[in-house]
């Protein structure tokens, strides 16, 4: 490949943000855009069948980086698995397809803490512009965007029981988690349409694949950004043909995610100068905050036996799989056309906090911890996620060699308040399952179990069983240029450098209190619009 090849925009990472940027920036036929993705194309039935996320994609090394943390000191030194997409569409190609924006007050807090232009009224048009929602128009929902979003379908009577139990326990009900009221029990929106997964690649890239000014290159790993003074001018990459270079006439945009983007900056000599020199990397730009402020949602799972044979167990057995799979291949219907995570809630651990800090996701099936393998009996479980974590971690490279995995330290539950709030989530969830709506179905509590009751017992159980929700963010934090914890400014430009931006989950100053993919797509929509305006 010729080393003199140039594009106006080079986008590094073909995940959710990268697909949006590639679509929006290439709308102008006068500019050239290259989108580079380390993983393969999003081909095959597994990336189209929604339920395959549960069955295979989270565990697949083909479409997934399959990262692991370092031993977590506050989780009994357990290493935590953190899958994230290595495929066109990124994590939107392998996730559970829950489409949730977070709470409006979080974005107001972003703006109040130095991210000018990011309050809820600023970002709402870009949430709406990204989606085509299946239900009636409201002031909060979009209907002309690329991303087709549908209201989830309750696939099991246990889902109904969970929603009824929430009302019986005295909690609010909401018609739309992404509407006027996030708090309460309701049905999740899903990135599913006509029985198939809706990913960032299927919605933003596939319809425009014939644009002559857009070059999409998969199995292409970017190894370094090259600077000329303080201006980013080109990237180095490897592909099947070897090593190459691409030049950028206007900008290089990193969209490699909260794990990948800080790695690439650090390998390029952009980060904490003292640390980079200690591992033999020449420092091109001292920016100490790169790779720090890592955030994630921590969760525990409450699991119960079901006294009636009404869970999804039969669908997971060989005959059930065969019948369900045949139904999906025939007409894209049935359980395989669903997320299986339909019913849930956003709740407050304490009444005095301003907005929900807990997310409950109900699953009408009992599965083995850390996997999607069903247990050999009828059961159900509640995933209790703490959404407003105070704990912070980091992503640091160990070597200039791109093949060497980084050190990922989530430090989950390093802040004592996180443990307290998660413990409250367990009490709340137990109370919900103990409502009369579950009397017909509720068997023994398997996890934590009836013997785990005191604060000390719960604390011990949590540290032995807590996991993450696969939502890493904030390692290239957005904020004021005067804030030493910032990596990018509110325009997502890397501080102190020209022609280099980061646009992905890593720029969130505070993780949102919901699944993160909808927010990542919004971020890319907003910055695409800003870039287009800045060059006209």
Walk me through the structure:
The chain is an alpha+beta fold and 536 residues long. It is built from 13 helices and 27 strands. It has helices at residues 16-25, 52-55, 104-112, 120-130, 157-168, 200-205, 257-267, 273-278, 313-316, 318-331, 416-433, 455-465, 517-534, and strands at residues 6-12, 33-36, 67-68, 81-82, 98-99, 131-133, 147-151, 184-187, 189-190, 192-193, 196-197, 214-217, 221-228, 231-239, 242-254, 270-271, 285-286, 292-294, 298-306, 343-347, 358-363, 379-386, 393-396, 407-409, 442-447, 467-468, 500-502. The strands form seven sheets. Strands 1, 2, 12, 13, 14, 15 and 27 form a seven-stranded mixed β-sheet that branches. Strands 8, 19, 20, 21, 22, 25 and 26 form a seven-stranded antiparallel β-sheet that branches. Strands 5-9-7-6 form a four-stranded mixed β-sheet. It is globular and about 70 Å long. The two termini are 32 Å apart. The model has no long low-confidence stretch (mean pLDDT 95).
Structure summarized in a few sentences:
With 536 residues, the protein is an alpha+beta fold.
């Amino acid at each position: 490949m010729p080393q003199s090849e140039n594009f106006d925009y080079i986008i590094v990472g073909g995940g959710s943000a990268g697909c949006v940027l590639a679509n929006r920036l290439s709308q102008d036929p006068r500019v050239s855009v290259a989108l580079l993705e380390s993983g393969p194309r999003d081909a095959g039935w597994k990336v189209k069948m929604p339920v395959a996320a549960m069955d295979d994609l989270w565990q697949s090394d083909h479409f997934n980086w399959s990262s692991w943390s370092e031993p977590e000191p506050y989780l009994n030194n357990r290493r935590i698995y953190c899958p994230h997409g290595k495929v066109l569409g990124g994590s939107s190609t392998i996730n559970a397809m829950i489409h949730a924006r977070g709470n409006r007050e979080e974005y107001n807090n972003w703006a109040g803490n130095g991210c000018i232009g990011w309050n809820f009224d600023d970002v709402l048009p870009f949430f709406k512009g990204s989606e085509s929602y299946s239900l009636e128009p409201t002031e909060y929902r979009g209907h002309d965007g690329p991303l087709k979003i549908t209201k989830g379908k309750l696939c099991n009577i246990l889902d109904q029981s969970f929603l009824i139990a929430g009302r019986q326990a005295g909690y609010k009900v909401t018609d739309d988690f992404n509407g006027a009221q996030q708090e309460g029990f309701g049905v999740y929106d899903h990135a599913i349409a006509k029985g198939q997964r809706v990913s960032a690649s299927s919605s933003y890239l596939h319809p425009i694949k014939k644009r002559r000014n857009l070059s999409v290159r998969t199995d292409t790993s970017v190894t370094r950004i090259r600077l000329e003074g303080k201006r980013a001018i080109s990237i180095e990459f490897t592909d099947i043909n070897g090593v190459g270079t691409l030049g950028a006439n206007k900008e290089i945009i990193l969209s490699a995610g909260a794990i990948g983007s800080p790695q690439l900056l650090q390998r390029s000599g952009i980060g904490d100068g003292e640390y980079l020199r200690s591992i033999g990397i020449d420092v091109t730009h001292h920016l100490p905050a790169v790779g720090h402020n890592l955030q994630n949602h921590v969760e525990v799972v409450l699991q119960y036996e079901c006294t009636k044979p009404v869970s999804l167990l039969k669908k997971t057995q060989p005959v059930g799989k065969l019948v369900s799979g045949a139904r999906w291949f025939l007409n894209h219907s049935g359980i395989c056309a669903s997320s299986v995570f339909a019913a849930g809630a956003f709740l407050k651990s304490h009444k005095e906090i301003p907005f929900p800090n807990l997310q409950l996701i109900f699953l009408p099936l009992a599965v083995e911890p850390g996997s999607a393998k069903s247990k050999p009996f009828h059961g159900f479980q509640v995933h209790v996620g703490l959404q407003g974590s105070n704990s912070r971690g980091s992503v640091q490279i160990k070597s200039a060699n791109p093949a060497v995995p980084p050190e990922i330290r989530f430090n989950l539950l390093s802040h004592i308040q996180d443990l307290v709030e998660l413990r409250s989530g367990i009490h709340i969830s137990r109370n919900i399952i103990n409502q009369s709506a579950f009397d017909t179905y509720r068997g023994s509590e398997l996890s934590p179990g009836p013997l785990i009751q005191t604060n000390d017992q719960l604390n011990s159980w949590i540290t032995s069983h807590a996991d993450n929700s696969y939502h890493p963010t904030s390692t290239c934090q957005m904020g004021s240029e005067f804030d030493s914890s910032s990596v990018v400014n509110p325009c997502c430009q890397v501080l102190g450098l020209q022609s280099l931006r980061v646009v992905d989950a890593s720029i969130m100053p505070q993780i949102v209190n919901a699944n993160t993919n909808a927010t990542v797509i919004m971020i890319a929509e907003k910055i695409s619009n800003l870039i287009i305006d800045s060059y006209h």
